[in-house]
Amino acid sequence: MATIQLHTYHATVEGGFLSIQMNIGGTRQDPMPMRTFTATKTAEVLAAVEAMKAEGIALGIPFVIAARVKEGRAPAGFRDCVPARHYVKVNC
């Protein structure tokens, strides 16, 4: 079992390049609050990412989603799934 965190960052696409605006120590809020949950299967993580993506589409703000393991052992296949290795684009 692992504790998974889903983070969101503002993003834009300019000329085919994805530009991610990290907010390290700044005052700008992330597009959506960070989500923390426990998962035993990679499918649970992917379902949570898709749910967050659906909420983000309704907001209309361009951003990306990233997933990481906060503590515990990562579910089988987690390190190879798209949210763990790359950013998932929403409204970009």
Compact summary:
With about 90 residues, the protein is of the alpha+beta class.
Q: Could you characterize the architecture of this molecule?
A:
- This protein is of the alpha+beta class.
- The chain has helices spanning 42-59, 82-85, and strands at 2-14, 17-21, 35-39, 63-72, 88-90.
- Strands 1, 2, 3, 4 and 5 form a five-stranded antiparallel sheet that branches.
- Strand 1 (2-14) and strand 2 form a beta hairpin.
- The longest helix has 18 residues, at 42-59.
- The mean pLDDT is 89.
How would you summarize the topology of this molecule?
Elements: E1 2-14, E2 17-21, E3 35-39, H1 42-59, E4 63-72, H2 82-85, E5 88-90
Antiparallel strand pairs: 1-2, 1-3, 1-4, 4-5
- Number of helical stretches of at least 4 residues: 2
Number-wise, the strands total 5
What is the residue-mean pLDDT, rounded to a whole number? 89
| Residues in β-strands, percent | 35-45%
For the report, how would you describe the main beta sheet? 5 strands, antiparallel
In whole angstroms, the N-to-C terminal distance is 32 Å
Low-confidence sequence ranges: none
H/E order of the elements? Answer: EEEHEHE
- Name the shape in a single word: globular
SS-based structural class? alpha+beta
Q: Helical amount among residues, as a percent range?
A: 10-25%
Radius of gyration: 13 Å
What labels would you give this structure?
2 helices; five-stranded antiparallel β-sheet; alpha+beta; 92 residues; single chain
